[in-house]
From TrEMBL, chain B:
Residues 18-212 form the ABC transmembrane type-1 domain. PROSITE patterns: ABC_TM1. InterPro entries: AA_ABC_Transporter_Permease, MetI-like, MetI-like_sf. The keyword Transmembrane applies. It comes from Viridibacillus soli. PANTHER family: ABC TRANSPORTER PERMEASE (PTHR30450), D-METHIONINE TRANSPORT SYSTEM PERMEASE PROTEIN METI-RELATED (PTHR30450:SF1). The keyword Transmembrane applies. Keywords: Cell membrane, Membrane, Transmembrane, Transmembrane helix, Transport. This is ABC transporter permease. It is found in: Cell membrane. The chain crosses the membrane at residues 22-45, 57-84, 96-117, 167-186, 193-212.
Amino acid sequence: MILKVVMTVIQLENVSKKYRTANGELIAVKDVNLSVENGEIFGIIGYSGAGKSTLIRLLNGLEQPTSGKVIVNSQEISSIKGSALRNARQKISMIFQHFNLLWSRTVEENISFPLEIAGVSKSERQKKVLELVELVGLKGREKAYPSQLSGGQKQRVGIARALANSPEVLLCDEATSALDPETTDSILDLLVDINEKLGLTVVLITHEMHVIRKICHRVAVMEAGQVVENGDVLQVFQSPQANVTKRFVSQITDTNERKESIGQIIKNYPSGTLVKLLFVGSSTGQPVISHLSRELNLDVNIVHGNISQTKSGPYGTLIVQLDGNKDNVQKAVAYMNEHGVKTEVIENAE
Amino acid sequence: MLNDLFPNVDWEKMWEATQETLYMTGVATVFTFVIGLALGILLFLTSPQQLWANKLVSWLTGSIVNIFRSIPFIILVILLIPFTKLLLGSIRGPNAALPALIIGAAPFYARMVLIALKEIDKGVIEAARSMGAKTSTIIGKVLIPESLPALVSGITVTAIALVGYTAMAGVIGAGGLGTLAFLDGFQRSQSDVTFVATILILVVVFVIQFIGDFITTKIDKR
Ligand SMILES: Nc1ncnc2c1ncn2[C@@H]1O[C@H](COP(=O)(O)OP(=O)(O)OP(=O)(O)O)[C@@H](O)[C@H]1O
Ligand SMILES: [Mg+2]
């Protein structure tokens, strides 16, 4: 038996951050409790101004909390200073929305920068840079300046640079928000790749549910400085509690369904039984649908679908029209329930 | 041929004056660069939200820079006569002009350095901090390299201003082309001397501008 040891890498205890502004006190982060486990990809989602950046900056001490404790790699980041903090930061890397590369340095010099800070010898640096350039797929562009690279390539440099000192944690502040959808996907793939290959813990903030859906294991939803909901991505998708979460979830699911009302579907498919299937990952490895038609001799007509892939399997809804023997329709529903697909009979014709 | 065109010009003297101008400009530029850069960095780092954010130091440095920047150069030269005497034992010759030149130009350049540093993307400094960089590393490996084109074009402008200042410093007998144009040219009504001195000053200015522009474009990889 494999025993999976779960270790907490990041722990936030009652963390608050207040800013003094001209209009009085502003609470950017309010009483947040969170823990991130070793090797997971943890997403934080929220609308603009929710306090995501402030929260992530607390994790590497770029900001100090007004109250509460921030513990990363079993070090209390919120209480260390000077060289202890600087050394800790070398193991908590960060990538940025606008890449923040030094334009005066080439790709390899940019990647080498954190190694220079860490006092690594020149020959070691060259070796490491070569490895990293390869890892992020930038071979051949080592001598290019950032101005000669595309956004996606710049972020690859950012990632390589962030990995240079073999960090334990990678913080991503809207790392894909400045990229087009395709490039976003390739960068997300790279992050997953790194997460799996290096066992690195990734904390990622975004305002796009798509990003959470695609690569995160767990997610925290932020609103007005508070974490209003947090848990496994699928769980949060399946039964969103807070209103913000519901809005985010609807970003990637039943958006079409609302427009095209169920009533319309019923009108268009007057015969058989209309069943709404809710896929929530894990179980749907098996070809459930084909089983229905093959074994139960039903006509299965897909009427409406909205399935997206998450880290732990497909998630979404499918509305099907089942035509055939009534008993078999019953059996079909039972079969699907057994296989972890939630069902909801919308309309029984006849 | 040249002697027919410019009968009053003593070429030997003219060459000597050119050298003096170049000497004063060169030495003053080097010191101005160093002092102005240091002051500019101090101004930048002590400004609000920066690494050494400090209202008092920022205000003090800013005030000193502004005061010296506002004093007309010719007045500054006169004000500094006792100081120069104390420092060099004399108020004649190219070296005597240096204190005034440097004190006049460094605050001017410090302002330009501040503007150049403010142009740096805040995110880049933050990235360096997130990697665990010390402030000295940030100064040496981020602030200066990232603002270098602006620093170079700033020192070019300053050096050109210094050429003008050296001419004015002629009133305290600093030497150089300015003094020559004033004493030999203007006061003795030898307009050919003034003319040649002017041409030479223009050549110096153009050469400085050319070198500055060349370096600026060469190092700008943005
Ligand atoms: N240095 C600061 N001084 C004062 N207020 C600040 C500061 N930094 C952030 N804030 C305020 O804190 C709140 C949260 O900001 P934050 O940048 O964390 O939001 P965010 O969720 O990252 O938003 P976005 O998606 O736009 O990046 C905002 O109201 C912001 O104005
Ligand atoms: Mg933000």
